Amino acid sequence: MAQTDNKRFFENLSGAGKAIAVLTSGGDAQGMNAAVRAVVRMGIYVGAKVYFVHEGYQGMVDGGDNIKEATWESVSSMLQMGGTVIGSARCKDFRMHEGRLKAAHNLVQRGITNLCVIGGDGSLTGANLFREEWSGLLAELVQQGLIDEEASQKYSALHIVGMVGSIDNDFCGTDMTIGTDSALHRIIEVVDAIMTTAQSHQRTFVLEVMGRHCGYLALVSALACGADWVLIPEMPPEDGWEEKMCQKLSATRSRGSRLNIIIVAEGAIDRHGKAITSSIVKDLVVQRLGFDTRVTILGHVQRGGTPSAFDRILASRMGVEAVLALLETTANTPACVVSLCGNQSVRLPLMECVQMTQQVQKAMDEKRFEEAVQLRGRSFENNLKTYKLLAHRKPESELPQSNFNVAVLNVGAPAAGMNAAVRSAVRVGISEGHKMFAVSDGFEGFYKGQIKEIKWADVGGWTGQGGSLLGTKRTLPAKHIDKIAEQMRKYNINALLVIGGFETCDRIKQSASGTKHRVFIIETMGGYCGYLASVGGLAAGADAAYIFEEPFDIRDLQSNVEHLTEKMKTSIQRGLVLRNENSNENYTTDFIYQLYSEEGKGVFDCRKNVLGHMQQGGAPSPFDRNFGTKIAAKAMQWISKKLNESYRKGVGRVFANTEDSACLLGMRRRALVFQPVVQLRDETDFVHRIPKEQWWLKLRPLMKILAKYKTSYDISDSGQLEHVVLNRPKQSEAMAAI
């Protein structure tokens, strides 16, 4: 990759002579191991010494074998493991000055002045205090004769970078914390399982989820499963909520539903600060409605299991960014935390985030609930708005009067989350006063007239369904445009919402972990787009990923084989290679398999697997359900706005003849953006049906670095310490954005 004047590359940053210690503290969270692995490998890659601190701050205080130098191989097979391999403990000693003095002595003895802390707000606050006291602690150590003056001068500054590892997602300044997505997976797995038994017996289930004083897990779980009611601490229900909830449950049953789901956050309270527990809710439903009601308290199962792909990628990106931040820090740089904003890693002052997090609890204690929701951040606020919009149907008399008809259809290949998007679009459209129509089988069904009105209750239970319940075909509209126009006139369709595309590596690697010196060659889908192969490779710790966007030849293949062979001669016993299905017409999966098999003889053996359409199957993940729900809600609100702007009362028609009347909604960097379709012409490779520029290509060097390849890494987007900003959107902008 050529260096340009407007780009910065991390090769200019050196860790030579530096020592970095990484520790996990507080409660464990899935993905912590991926973060530890990334810190260790990136640190070694840039020439620094990296140390494990076992058992969190307790290990730092106790010293000895609790602080060990890490090697490249010591973090192998760590990526897919839950919990934290290096251990975590809540440490009373570190809260005392004497304990921090011992910790400082143990670090100075090993020349460690860079600390990477993975934990919650308490752990990160303790790290910042340690940093502030550092010079005083060294002075005490000199005075006590435990270190000399030269060591005190050499190690005069302690640098701190934090990553938030917490399933609660209760830390201000980041959209997601490490472990949250995996916890949502555990919750949704349980909810999906419970819904089948609840439906069989016409039961109501009350599920209590974790989160301490934060309702994120409860709120997003409710969005992802279409729960009838949710109770969270940031926005307690109004007085009289008991009657309203029972009316909602009864109304759901009267429309033919055989079950009810209520989700309660463990910290849920009413407007007067009184706790609302799952048992209280159960007793209420039984006494007032007589419904057969059961309680399920998920407990620590939410912390367990393997981390999701999202958490592995998030943690890997954060770990690399943390090392870069430590390399760039100076004595005057405040302690920072690596956060996620949209799809970008950002650095924020640690204490600004901690102070805002503490303000949330203060606002709740003082019953300033609206402010507490705002302080939680844009994502939380819009999750709540979207849930309210979709879960509670307004009476017909309260709906705005609209003369617009809106049709929804799916096109292209089926994708998990499509049904959640359709449900969201239909219900938001009805809430906006529109008449909603469903089109079956994409544009093919459109021109054939497979169109019918769809009601609020028709999309109940769609959120967790895989595939496309409307049906979808790859038929393009161009050949049938006249017939489609005829159907639009027949049904008086004023707007279209089109949901679709451009028209499991983990278990395999676990299998390899149980064998000696084995390499798996995996083919992924994606057409000519290498996203699945690249990001899947990063999540699974792949050694190589071949994609169309980065051309390769026989020399690259040979180099990869030699690199993997060298690794296999050490303690590395397994390898993973991914190939996008259309990466190269000559270097097929069979060819690569045969090449690796031949060249690896005597060192490793090979297996291949073509994943095929199983990648499109199954229930949607919590992320897909949530993303589909919110992006469709935002799209419908945009359609409503455009319909009102382009409607001419005099002639009673909608005139949609401007560029911005046909837009694509998607995420760019940190925000969702509506972009006119005509503007996409210059940005799209229509032959291969992919964008000319792909944001995720910047992640590919991370996979190579973590697999021990020498490569360039563009860090132009890194390095800027930003500040926490509380967004207070105008009423007109308060749409269901992410």
Automatic annotation (TrEMBL):
From the UniProt record, give the pathway where this protein acts. Carbohydrate degradation; glycolysis; D-glyceraldehyde 3-phosphate and glycerone phosphate from D-glucose: step 3/4
Recorded hits in PROSITE patterns, A to Z, give:
PHOSPHOFRUCTOKINASE (PS00433)
Q: Which reaction does it catalyse?
A: beta-D-fructose 6-phosphate + ATP = beta-D-fructose 1,6-bisphosphate + ADP + H(+)
Q: Name one Pfam family in it.
A: PFK
- Which intervals hold domain Phosphofructokinase? 20-325, 503-639
According to its UniProt record, this protein's enzyme class is transferase
Which keywords does UniProt give here?
Allosteric enzyme, ATP-binding, Cytoplasm, Glycolysis, Kinase, Magnesium, Metal-binding, Nucleotide-binding, Transferase
Q: In terms of domain of life, where is this protein from?
A: Eukaryota
GO CC term, one of those recorded: 6-phosphofructokinase complex
Q: What SUPFAM superfamilies would the database entry show?
A: Phosphofructokinase
What EC number(s) does this enzyme carry?
A: 2.7.1.11
Q: Which cofactor does it need?
A: Mg(2+)
Q: Which GO terms of the molecular function aspect are on file?
A: 6-phosphofructokinase activity; AMP binding; ATP binding; fructose-6-phosphate binding; identical protein binding; metal ion binding; monosaccharide binding
List the InterPro entries hit by this protein, alphabetically: 6-Pfructokinase_euk (IPR009161), ATP_PFK (IPR022953), Phosphofructokinase_CS (IPR015912), Phosphofructokinase_dom (IPR000023), PKF_sf (IPR035966)
One GO term under biological process is:
fructose 1,6-bisphosphate metabolic process
Q: Which NCBIfam families match?
A: 6PF1K_euk
Q: Which family does it belong to?
A: Belongs to the phosphofructokinase type A (PFKA) family. ATP-dependent PFK group I subfamily. Eukaryotic two domain clade "E" sub-subfamily.
PANTHER family from the entry? ATP-DEPENDENT 6-PHOSPHOFRUCTOKINASE, PLATELET TYPE, PHOSPHOFRUCTOKINASE
Name used for this protein in its record: 6-phosphofructokinase
